[in-house]
């Protein structure tokens, strides 16, 4: 039986899981469903920047118009840098890639990726608690159990359940994630709550670069749909000693953020006032940034079975610090790669298919993880007295070129070697 006729279950309806589902259905896989722990309307939004390498493949699979509806138009620069204290302009990186970066609220991105999916294939409020391996006389090799007492059967399981992946643990990978030393404060600011000069400055992506801290302002959405506002992302160095939540995502007073930024420029003070306007209760989202070390094996076969197994994608297997804005893009690339491979593989050897998927993806995601860590060091300066002299936007741009020039579909085509059916139209 071809993999496309197997019962495939995706755990996690985040960005990687939804990207996989879209392409799988387009490629003719029908027996595939998503089980997501959140309620359908339960998404906590944040601004994300989808770069050219991910947009390029989403467009091939018919998602361009739906994505553009709620995303930013082409912006003047990819990123503009300002001094944290004076607010002075330091330099910028041109947007040199097509399709250009799309800045969008995460909730709108999820909505766009769900637009063409049959509702009955998406199951919400289903928290995976365990995966049971059945013996061969059972009707399916795996049973997935959920927190509400329900269960479902599967031949192939895809763990797209984020950095705290339960599927990963069920596969026997018991490592712990590493705290990066930074926390992120996230919120939104409406343009109408800013003085005109500051509002105009923030119509492009701006990075206020400071000592061991930096702030990125994303002009997400667009005017015609009245979704335009600023996604505020403040990277602050903090110890976890005072962290009073068991979760990595918590709430913080805007005052805590203000304490970090008391000496920062007037534009940053305007942003803080804007955050207060958007959140009258005085709270905002705060997230501790963790990353996992790369693992050797992204999949696990069921013993004695040729065509039954589990694979991981997205943050579940290649989580990265967000300093190159690549977490979403890597999850999308991996989701699309796995969907194409499963739908078009010649033969029944699932291990070969999973290994091909890993061989295509792992070298790239390992490198992105490494360079994102380095980019974080450049984004915030360790030495505030010298950072203007050390700053070099051309070098920063060069660092990102290999990430954004990449075309997953060309890579799959080049390395395919007859192992799967491949449509030339995917290359146009
Ligand atoms: C501050 C910050 C800013 C970022 N900015 C960017 C950016 O600009 N650009 C970018 O590309 N990336 C960015 N990222 C990274 C990005 O958000 C993630 O890398 C991306 O969401 C990973 O996609 P995913 O599908 O693997 O996981 P997720 O999007 O996290 O989805 C996982 C899904 O699995 C579900 N789930 C988890 N456990 C279970 C379970 N047991 N049962 C059922 N469902 C479960 C979750 O509810 C979730 O919906 C940023 C990250 C941070 C922290």
Number of strands: 19
- The strands making up the biggest β-sheet line up spatially as 5-4-13-14-15-12-17-16
Q: Which small molecules are bound?
A: flavin-adenine dinucleotide
Largest sheet: 8 strands, mixed
Mean pLDDT: 91
> How many discrete structural domains?
2
CATH homologous superfamily caption of the largest domain: FAD/NAD(P)-binding domain
> Helical segment tally?
14
Derived from helix and strand composition plus strand pairing, the structural class reads alpha/beta
Task: Extract low-pLDDT stretches.
Answer: none
Shape: globular
CATH first level of the largest domain: which class?
Alpha Beta
Q: What percentage of the residues does DSSP assign to strands (E)?
A: 15-25%
Give the % helix.
Answer: 25-40%
C-alpha Rg, in Å?
22 Å
CATH architecture of the largest domain: 3-Layer(bba) Sandwich
Under CATH, the topology of the largest domain is which?
FAD/NAD(P)-binding domain
Straight-line distance between termini = 31 Å
Describe this structure in words.
- The protein is an alpha/beta fold and 428 residues long.
- The protein folds into 2 domains: 3-74 and 94-177 and 293-427, FAD/NAD(P)-binding domain (3-Layer(bba) Sandwich); 179-291, D-Amino Acid Oxidase, Chain A, domain 2 (2-Layer Sandwich).
- 34% of the residues lie in helices and 24% in strands.
- It is built from 14 helices and 19 strands.
- The strands form 4 sheets. Strands 5-4-13-14-15-12-17-16 form an 8-stranded mixed sheet, sandwiched between helices.
- Helix 1 runs parallel beside helix 4 (106-114), helix 1 runs parallel beside helix 10 and helix 10 (327-344) packs antiparallel against helix 11.
- The longest helix is centred in the last third of the chain and has 30 residues, at 350-379.
- The protein is globular and about 70 Å long.
- The structure holds flavin-adenine dinucleotide.
